[in-house]
UniProtKB/TrEMBL annotation, chains A, B:
It holds the Pfam family AA_kinase. The record marks K8, K225 as: Transition state stabilizer. The keyword Signal does not apply. Its EC number is 2.7.2.8. GO terms for molecular function: acetylglutamate kinase activity. Belongs to the acetylglutamate kinase family. ArgB subfamily. Keywords: Amino-acid biosynthesis, Arginine biosynthesis, ATP-binding, Cytoplasm, Kinase, Nucleotide-binding, Transferase. It is found in: Cytoplasm. Substrate binds at G40, G41, R62, N159. Catalyzes the ATP-dependent phosphorylation of N-acetyl-L-glutamate. Its main location: cytoplasm. InterPro entries: AceGlu_kinase-like_sf (IPR036393), AcgluKinase_fam (IPR004662), ArgB (IPR037528), Asp/Glu/Uridylate_kinase (IPR001048). This is Acetylglutamate kinase.
Length: 262, 262
């Protein structure tokens, strides 16, 4: 019996006021314990443009220089996170907005420089998460809402992938809860045919995953999500569900939409 | 015996890296339970200028329009708050950054429009503070760090005076703790002669306060602080201490510097 829902919502929902409002209503309506992890959306780029902060990308990955970590701390850790909290409060959900630096819940290490210097990007020190304050907040009836930021313990905030934060929290909390980890994204699930939005694969287990990889039907965009998902499953998380924000919160007890990974 | 320190630090310290570093080291070194409330400093004005957000003032008070509440949510609730948290973590203090919207700790009402429309400014609903999650965080050994923001419970964040947040929290927590409320500012304390920085009045009680008012020796700037201080004392707070950030944290058990109000 699932008793903790950990839900990651991406920028495509954050950026769309109508989608976001529906999502927050559905999220608030989930009974029991839940955690939200949000991405940033395009607002950081827009405000960065206004501030003259140029987004640098290498191989499609944003480089987080000093100006950019301040930008995402403002926009993800401040504007987006606190607006989500205020809106969830209005929807009757007792949200509390956090980063991984808060209560030292998610220690990270600045990504070592190899071919690429990613700048102020954090790799989660997954074995060192501090779940005690998080469990205290859950037991007190509050709903933690995480911005995609961590810290190095030496005073430096770090930009961190929201999918990874979600899976790391799910794994760390699996010792105390039966966790369903839900990734909301812009598709109805993992697709057998990227051109057909209805071609949702309902179930993926390790054998099916190997077969899909061999058939090369999976797009590059979905592979990191699936890697995160299997890493979670292999480390104690009960279920991972991937699908559209409109569908995956409607079925919090019995899975009826999206792709279930187990 | 004081068992909770509630400390408000203003923009003059936030804006000065050397002062701030000293302050955070001293704050982190205070044993036992403590809460920090911070102001914003000039960085909001600087970033606002870059974003083309004009600060409007009426009678010396900033008007918080829609662009400005987003700005202060980013800068106070995001950048300043999370940098303080990361730096306190580095100093060994298990800080957790919050606004009044988080866990609905500080409900507020948008200030009613009379002569002046202050915009998205919140007046604290002092009788309705939710201290249970705050006490849970204190008992769990974490140190709450508040940005000067509240919310109306209907989804709107509100810009709120940090001194008022500090006194409201101090009063609300007086049912469970013996609270010393400390206001750090740029002077050594309340001055008998505003031109003489050493003319610190060491003790103010209601009788002395009336006498000082009659003598008209108090400047306009200090009067709201003293009103907040007496409001706190009259509502259960054990002690209020006003003085320079360098002095007032050094004497957390026996008062030796600054102005004590009781």
């Amino acid at each position: 019996m699932i008793d903790l829902f950990i839900i990651k919502v991406g920028g495509n929902v954050i950026d769309n006021p109508v989608l976001l409002q529906d999502f927050l209503q559905q999220f608030a309506a989930i009974p029991g314990k839940k955690i939200l992890i949000h991405g940033g959306g395009k607002i950081a780029t827009r405000i960065g443009d206004q501030l003259g902060i140029v987004s640098n990308y290498v191989d499609g990955r944003r480089i987080t220089d000093a100006a950019t970590i301040d930008l995402v701390t403002m926009v993800y850790g401040g504007l987006v996170n606190k607006q989500l909290v205020a809106q969830l409060q209005a929807a009757g959900c007792n949200a509390i907005g956090l980063t991984g630096a808060d209560a030292n819940i998610i220690p990270a290490v600045k990504r070592p420089v190899k071919e690429i210097d990613y700048g102020f990007v954090g790799d989660v020190r997954a074995a060192e998460l501090h779940t005690a304050p998080l469990k205290a907040l859950l037991e007190a009836g509050t709903t933690p809402v995480f911005a995609p930021l961590t810290h190095d313990g030496k005073g430096q905030l770090l930009n961190t992938n929201a999918d990874t934060i979600a899976s790391s929290l799910a794994i760390a909390l699996s010792d105390s809860y039966q966790v369903r980890l839900i990734y909301c994204f812009e598709k109805k699930g993992v697709l057998r045919d990227p051109a057909d939005d209805e071609a949702v694969i309902n179930l993926i287990n390790p054998a099916i995953y190997q077969q899909l990889l061999a058939e090369k039907v999976l797009t590059d965009g979905i592979l990191p999500k699936l890697d995160n998902a299997f890493s979670a499953i292999n480390n104690g998380v009960k279920e991972v569900l991937i699908g559209h924000a409109k569908d995956v919160l409607n079925n919090t007890t019995t899975q009826v939409a999206g792709t279930l990974i187990c």
